[in-house]
Amino acid sequence: MEEKTIDRERAYALLCRYNKEEFHLKHAKILEGVMRYFAQTEGYAEEADFWAVAGLLHDLDFEQWPQEHCIKEQELMRQEQLPQRLIRACASHGFGICTDIQPEHQMEKILYAVDELTGLIGATALMRPSKSVMDLEVKSVKKKFKQPSFAAGCSREVIANGAKLLGWDLDHLIEKTICAMRTLDPE
């Protein structure tokens, strides 16, 4: 079976085949943009489209199969004959939670680190008068990071482990992710 490349249009159609809830679609688009930003700033600009598609599809199975998250998506992606490195990258963001596929490539490490972090940053921004990341500071996110009850679904352990995998301190990861989110469409 020959692997097929996947462009943004096809990836989004695939995402929408298995996801209908606005929350999941919005999260996917946020990760798409954040991953594109990181590809461009981390020296992988020629792979920006690939990184963006990985961000878009990373939770392909979560809405319909939350108990099989990162497992079912591998099956769905293989059925679509998607590249193995895309399948692996998407599955690796569940490392230690629902898969044993450890992030190895820089893209996989970033996807793992920012998946939960974008949720925490977004929730923190919504608490501000501006409801925007445009004026959000690292210290505000760090304050909320230390409050386990705030955005409780965003795993602080995964975020911290992601920073460690990247060899970055937490402040650096938060700052870069805020910068990435500032490049996104405000909607």
Concise overview:
This protein is an all-alpha fold and 187 residues long. It contains 9 helices and no strands.
Please write out the topology.
Blueprint: H1 8-18, H2 22-41, H3 48-57, H4 72-79, H5 84-92, H6 106-126, H7 138-145, H8 156-166, H9 170-182
Helix pairs in contact: 1-3, 2-3, 2-6, 2-9, 3-5, 4-5, 5-6, 6-7, 6-8, 6-9, 7-9
Compute the number of structural domains: 1
* Secondary structure tally, helices: 9
**Structural class by helix and strand composition:** mainly alpha
Task: State mean pLDDT (0 to 100 scale).
Answer: 94
Radius of gyration: 16 Å
Largest sheet: none
Helicity, as a percent range: 55-70%
Instruction: Give the amount of beta strand, in percent.
Output: under 5%
Low-confidence stretches: none
Q: Tally of extended strands?
A: 0
Shape: globular
End-to-end Cα distance: 39 Å
Order of helices and strands: HHHHHHHHH
